[in-house]
Amino acid sequence: MAKRQPEFEFDLTGGQLALNFANTLSRRHHPDRRKEHLESYADIVAFARQSGIVSVKQAKELRDYTERHAGEAARTFRKAIAMREVMYRVFSAIAQGRTASAADLDLMNAFAIEALRHRCLSRTDGGYRWEWREDSKKPLDRILWEAAQAAADLLTSKELQLVRFCEAPDCEWLFLDHSRNRSRRWCDMNSCGNRQKARRHYQRTHDE
After folding, report:
1. Structural domain contains residue 46
2. Domain presence at residue 109
3. In the predicted model, what is the mean pLDDT of residues 67-84?
4. Domain span at residue 170?
5. Which pairs count as long-range contacts for 56-63, CB under 8 Å and 24+ apart, including other chains?
6. Is 23 within 8 Å of 95 (Cβ atoms)?
């Protein structure tokens, strides 16, 4: 039996599920250095587990299901990538002060409506809450609903004005700027921030 490769550890510093999902492709505008972190549906399951969307038990069940239904997993994977790309286009446009295209907004709307069709109210102790209604015909889409809902929630919230675009030219990830004076420039100070500071220091010392 083939040994399963250790799963990739995703960077979740975007501050919101939809932004973290959009950030699963690194250096997208640099073809020679681009790195895809979602190469199969199994990677989407890993992202979901690390993000708290599914439990360890649910992740195992999804992986086992994909091994028995490879074609379905491939179709859902393609849909997930399409959703990720439209999320990135919409939120990166907003982060740069531009308006998202009507076509992209229509596509985001379609993903959000599909997710809403699978939400239902459930009674809890002393009240009610929203839950996801399982779809036996599309069990692998469950993760996509969560991401689509997160994108819709962000688009309609006051936090939309906090969406930022990492200023590192070789990064361009998205994040929520919760800094006190709203001046955060990097997706992660420990990586992009320090790298850019080091680059500027190098340029200054060599220009003198």
Report:
1. yes
2. yes
3. 96
4. 17-207
5. 62/139, 62/140, 62/142, 62/143
6. no
